[in-house]
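BUG: 3D viewer hangs when loading the predicted structure for this chain

Environment: internal workstation, default settings.
Expected: structure renders.
Actual: progress bar stalls at 90%.

Input used:
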Amino acid sequence: MAGAMSMTGPIVCFGEMLLRLSPPGARLMVQTQSLEMAVGGAEANVAAGLASLGHTTRMVTLLPDSPLGDKARAELGAAGIDTRFIARGAGRMGLYFLEPGAGLRPSSITYDRAGSAFALCEPDAFDFAGALDGAALLHLSGITPALGPGGVALTRAAVAAAQAANVPICLDGNYRALLWDAWDSDPRAILTDLVGAATVLIGNHRDISLLLGKTFSGDGAERRREAVDAAFAAFPKLELMASTARHVVSSDHHRIAARVDTRQGKHQTAEIDVTGIVDRIGTGDAFAAGVLHQYLQGGSEQAMAETGLALAALKHSLPGDMCLIGAAELAAFSASGGDVRR
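Structure tokens produced before the viewer hung:
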């Protein structure tokens, strides 16, 4: 991948937006009398991360025609994301409740998104052709098809539109067992079909094991490369896989490494300590944004892995779902932190 040509044009992100409600501090839900609200969603988080790094991004979603929908759209606009292709409609906003972890108690998420306006909408609600006009990439995730048959139809419509426009696809597997298990789903068949259309996959050896029904031998890096080789053999369009490996020491101390594989080469970073964690949510989306930031510029496997890891590490220091780190802050990143920059 080193020396590949840079790609120009907007990055189009498609998926559901959510409101996150959480008790302040590290309280449990039963302890609080108030909830803090943040706007997010996996695909919107990637759009925000890329926009903060100077890329042109477009969000395609459907928001309720309500004050909550207005807030979500305003947050995207404030992050520098093009909101012209956001549809509006009747219905409710998808929610999730986060109980932040502390010490040895992990964070906990409860979804309340069934029957949301986005989940119930039809593919013809979206102007995919207009949004993808001149685009460099379509980014979507495995969360949308996990919502149910309607979500599968929406994802397939987005993929078909990208293929018709000759726009490459990035898919983040983002496997959510709670969502898939809530309906009579076949995630292996559905995700295999989607990965078959993708150029970039944000996923690891466990995702490939699910797709191919195969257990990979070996340990560590050897097992991951064996899975990558199997994925490249099974999916001819796939050019790039990127993933992280996370070891949780406590809720505010994780060790993270990143890996990028292409058909031409690979790079795996050293593990870094991420301590004093403020917010774990959205860090995988920040990683994806960092990888795509370099990919779109023709960066090497090493540049993609290291930039993805840096942006993911920095996101742990920010409250909320979105990573709003700018290019200068990313360039100044040090795994050891640092004193105040004056």
